[in-house]
Here is the input.
Amino acid sequence: MASQRDWDVQLPGILLAYRTTPQSSTGYTPAYLLFGREVCLPQGVAYGLPCDDSAPTEAAYVRTLRQRLQHAHTVVRKRLANVHRHQARLHDAGISAVRYEVDDLVWLLVPAVPVGTTPKLARPWKGPFRVVDKLSEVVYRIADTRPPGKRQVVHANRLKRCHVRPERLVVIPEVLAEPPPLDPPVSTYAATLPTGSISRTSTTAWSRSQTLCLLFLRLHVCNF
Here is the structure.
C-alpha cells in the first residue's frame, strides 16, 4: 500500500488476517468467538488440516456449538477482567490525585477548536475559573471569573490549578547626577565644537540613551 490508492483491494485480506489471529487479551480469534469454530483457510485445506465440525444430527451440532460458545465467552470474560485490572494498575502507577477546594482558581481544558483554525495555535486551557462546589472526589462545579459567571460541572481531569503571580515591584534606576563619559573622550574632538556645546551634546546623548533603556525595561516587564 505504498501508493495508498488500492486500499479497498487490500482491505479484505487485512480483515481476514485480523479475524483469524488469536488476540492477546482474549486468547481466541474473533472468528471463533462469533461462529464457534475456526475459519477454514486455504493453507489448511492444502495441508489437510481438520476443519470439518459436522455432527451426526442438527440437534447435536447446535448443542455442541452452544457449549463451545458458552465456554469461550466465559473464559474471555475472566481474561478481560484480568486485563482491565492490569491496565488500570499501569495507568494509575504514575498518577497522583489532585484535589481542589472551594474558591480555588483553576484552568479548564477545552480541546475543541473553531472550524477553520488549527489546534497547534489554539489555547486549550480557558479561564481562570473558580471552584464553587465539590460534588465528589473527582467532579466539581466551577464558575467563570468573568461576567456573567457561567457555571458548569466538569471532571477533575479537565482542570489544572491556576497559580496567581504576585505583583512584581519594578524598580526604575535613578537618573545619574553625572552623565557617563563619552567614547572616544571629549577632548579628542572638543576643538572642533563651538564653546559650550560639549555639555549640551553629551547631555542630549545621555538623555536619549536613558530614554531607550527605560522603554526597554517597561516593554520587558509587560511582556514577562
